[in-house]
Amino acid sequence: MLCCVGLIGGFAVGQSLGGPWTVIAPAAGFGIGFVADMKFMKGMHGSGGHHDTGVQAKKDADPVRGMEVDESKAQHQLQHSDKS
User: Fold this and answer.
1) Which pLDDT tens digit goes with each residue over 11-57?
2) Is residue 68 part of a domain?
3) Are 6 and 12 in contact (CB under 8 A)?
4) Which residues make Cβ contacts (< 8 Å) with residue 54, sequence separation at least 6?
5) pTM exceeding the 0.70 threshold for the entire prediction
6) Is 1 helix (H, G, I), strand (E, B) or coil?
7) What is the number of domains present in the chain?
8) pLDDT at residue 25 in the model
9) Quick one: DSSP state of residue 57?
10) pLDDT tier for residue 66 given thresholds of 50, 70 and 90
11) Strands (DSSP E) found in the chain
12) How far apart are the C-alpha atoms of 43 and 58, rounded to whole Å?
């Protein structure tokens, strides 16, 4: 949505400045609006329709990088000495 607003605003600025700005300003406005759209929409795509079941996922630390890992979402798992 913001990319369209940036494009229209860029056309207005480009028309008022004239010359090469009639092309540069709309492209710049669209680009700025597109980046703003991506920033605002980050993380929004996966939130629709999911309900909190109240069940806490089992999380553990990655032994290599030390990151917190959700075992229920892990693509690969290895069992060694009764540990996952």
Assistant:
1) 899 989 999 989 899 999 999 988 888 888 776 655 554 545 555 55
2) no
3) no
4) none
5) no
6) coil
7) 1
8) 92
9) P
10) confident
11) 59-61, 68-70
12) 22
Domain that holds residue 35: 2-40
Across 11-22, b (16+ Cβ under 10 Å) vs e yields eebbeeeeeeee
Are the C-beta atoms of 3 and 33 separated by less than 8 Å?
Answer: yes
Q: Which of 24, 18, 20 is nearest to 10 (CA)?
A: 24
In a domain, 67, yes or no: no
Task: Please report whether residue 63 resides in a domain.
Answer: no
DSSP, collapsed to helix, strand or coil, labels residue 66 as: coil
Whether 14 is covered by a domain: the verdict is yes
Residue type for position 75: Q
The predicted pLDDT at position 58 comes to 64
Do residues 19 and 38 lie in contact, with contact meaning Cβ atoms separated by under 8 Å? no
Single-letter amino acid, residue 61: A
pLDDT of residue 46: 54
